[in-house]
Structure formats: structure tokens, C-alpha cells
Amino acid sequence: MTLKPVHIIGAGLAGSEAAWQVAQMGVPVVLHEMRGVRMTDAHKTDGCAELVCSNSFRSDDVHYNAVGLLHEEMRRAGSLIMAEGDKSAVPAGGALAVDRDAFSQGVTEKLTSHPLISIRREHIEFPPDDWDSVIVATGPLTSVELAKKVQSIGGEEQLAFFDAIAPIVHKDSIDFDIAWMQSRYDKSGPAGTGSDYINCPMNKEQYEAFIAELLASEKTEFKEWESNTPYFEGCMPIEVMASRGVDTLRYGPMKPVGLTDPRTNARCHAVIQLRQDNALGTLYNMVGFQTKMKYAEQTRVFRMIPGLQNAEFARLGGLHRNTFINSPRLLNGSLQMKAMPRLRFAGQITGCEGYVESAAVGIMAGRFAACERLGVSMTPPPHTTAMGSILAHITGGGNADTFQPMNVNFGLFPPIDEPTHVRGKERGRERKKMLALRAINDIDNWLQQFTAAKAA
Fold first, then answer.
1. What does the pLDDT average to over 230-244?
2. DSSP 49
3. 427 to each of 96, 197, 420, 439, how far by Cα in Å?
4. Which strand (E) or helix (H) includes residue 298?
5. CA dihedral 299, 39, 58, 160 (to 10 degrees)
6. At 140, is the secondary structure helix, strand, or coil?
7. DSSP-assigned beta bridge partners for residue 273
8. How many CB atoms lie within 10 A of CB 148?
9. In this structure, are residues 174 and 311 in contact, taking their beta carbons and an 8 Å threshold?
10. Which domains does the chain have, with CATH numbers?
11. Is residue 56 scored above 70 in pLDDT?
12. Model pTM greater than 0.85?
């Protein structure tokens, strides 16, 4: 029997993952990607799963961090994104960070060589009526034409926010008489040693002078249609955070905890961290330093940072508009649009936030679509899992009146009986581990249904 293909619009992380999951279940896929014939404001290549912001997939700690737990669930689900991320990993302390070029190339090669996946370079304004199974995974930079069509069907005003890009610095331009290598708390990760970040220290006087210039710097002017667009808290421009109070950054991306300046053997007033951005270790990005400053101002202000006084930038920061739908109102539990069930949505357009979260929603959308095509029953992943907690939030758990993008976190999980044999901070850590162990057991049980579906 020849199966009709599932059409997937967008070859970012979610679309690439969804295509892989559908094809791995024996269902043909047509993956439509407009880059190659039409670029976005943020992408630089036409490669699948190109990373346009950070190169970090964040914590890889499976037992004590919800993101690390999500990594593990995705690996167990045969995630293409995690497999290629692991192959292209670069040192990043307790995090999983990747060489962005090697990562995108690996994903592209896997998809291109799969016998059930066809990639078409074209812009889809809206899926034709005869496409009866479609996954819209157009991400934060959905084309205006497609966004307007989705908006008209859903009857909801489209929500939007800005996503800010952090600068990247050439390592050989950093002054290591001032800067030093250390991961916070000396923590190592999947590709790290415990000394993976470059740290640039500031004393109180330097910090306050830096904040003053950051606030006084000339910023990018917004177009009229962008002027009322809110920021997502997890990707806030550095100068917007600084405007909230002089010490805001010292308790955010410039926090000095877990780091010791080897010159003084003491904690600094503030620290700027840089994370490796490519496999060669020649490029480092400024962690948490997304910005809307003009290019000349970025160079001037960031060279005030001790250790970066002669910094050469491979890429300066920038902004692009990001859009997402009000998923709690528009989507059902299998990511279908209630007003047009032939459409499913995946990735950041659903209001999940983060690379791995987007790919995880791609896993779920792809498996739902494949099962539907195969005519087998399916159930959503349990709410007790990382994937299930994301799905529950974006399809009903989030407040539709105040819906905002959300990263995975243990606050989205159903509670578990508190451990009674420990106290204080250790009790919280033990609770996280209990949540993680429950999730791993439950995701394994959920995945068994798909093994049965493929066998059928």
C-alpha cells in the first residue's frame, strides 16, 4: 500500500525533527523549506536546523535539570536533533553546546539521504486543500503571508516578540592576562572538562561604568509595526535588563557565583562569561548578551569589559521579530488546529521556547501525524514527562489570556510526594531526581506504543 505523504512546512529544528520521526515510522514526507529561494532576517544559510541565536542546548543534567531530562527523553525517542547535537558537541561545562555549522550539516545530510524524505525549496503561502496532513513548523520567523492565513482561520490576534542575538568573539583577541577559563562551580558536562567558559571579571567601579554606558548607548530604532512588541523574558536584550536596576545583571547573566578570579583568589563583583561556539574553539559567544545596540555602539561598549578591550567580533548582536500562536486556544492535545484539523503545529510557533523544546514538539507532532496516517491509535505523552509537560502547557495548561513562550521546567510537572529523609536544599534536589526518574519510566512506557504501531 502506498501511503500519502505528510507535508511539513519549515526545516528548522522542529520541522527537521518532525520529518525524521514521520519517516522513521515508515510514512513518506515532503519537507518544504523557503530558505534557498527566500531568506529570513536572521538566517545566514539554507541548511536544515540552522541555529541563529545561541549554540547551546543548555543543561545536559538528566536528574536535576528539566532541560537535561528532556534531552534524555528525546534521545530515547530516536531524536535526530539530539543525535547530531551529540556528534557536534563542543566544551560547555555542564551544558550541551554544538558547533553550529557541523550540526546543521549533519541534520541536512541525514534528511537528504533518507529514502522517505523529499526536500523542496519553495515558499508555501498556505497548504493546498488536497494536503490532508500538514505540520506547520515555520518557527519564530514565519512568513507574513502564512501567518496572516493562520491568523484568519484561528480568529486570534497573532502574538509577537523580539528574539535577540548575542555577539561572537574571536578567542585569539581575548586578553588572558585578565580573563581565565572556568566553568561555574567547576562543573563538567558531556563534552567539557570543568574549565570550559572564558570569564571576564569586573570590580564595582568597572561594573557601574559599564552599566552607565550600556544604558546610554544608541539602540536600534524599531519600525512602527514593531514598536509594541513585547520581549520574551528568556531572551531579554542586555540593555533592557540593565534598565531594571543597576544590580539586575549581577543577579542574571553577569552573576559571579561559582567563579574565582585566579589573580585575586576571590569572587568578583560581576563576571561576563563566553561559551565556545565552534568545534575548533576559535569563536566564543557572550553568554546572555543579546542586544539591540547599534553595531558601532556594541564594539565600543563591549570593549569596556576587562579582557575584551581588544576584542574582535566575528558577529555582532541583533534583533529579529518572533511570532507564536495562542496555542491553548487554537490547538488540541495532538497539536491539531481546532478550526482546521488537517493542520498541526510544531516548534516555537506553538509558544514553546528553546531549541530542544521546539524539537521535542516536533517529535510529538511527527509521531501523531505518522500514527494518524498509519491508522493506529495514539495517546499523548504523560504529563509526568518533560515532553508531556510541554505539550500540556501549550495545549491547555497555559493561561490563554496571558499566554507567553515557556521553556521546560519542573514547575510544569505534576507534583510528587516530597522526600522526607532529607532537608533544606538537598530536599529540593532529591525531589527533582524523583520527578526525573518517574519521567524516564513513563516516557519509556509511552514510546512502546509506537514500536507496536511500526510493527503493525
1. 82
2. T
3. 26, 29, 8, 18
4. helix 295-302
5. 90
6. helix
7. 199
8. 14
9. yes
10. 6-158+325-455 (3.50.50.60), 164-321 (2.40.30.260)
11. yes
12. no
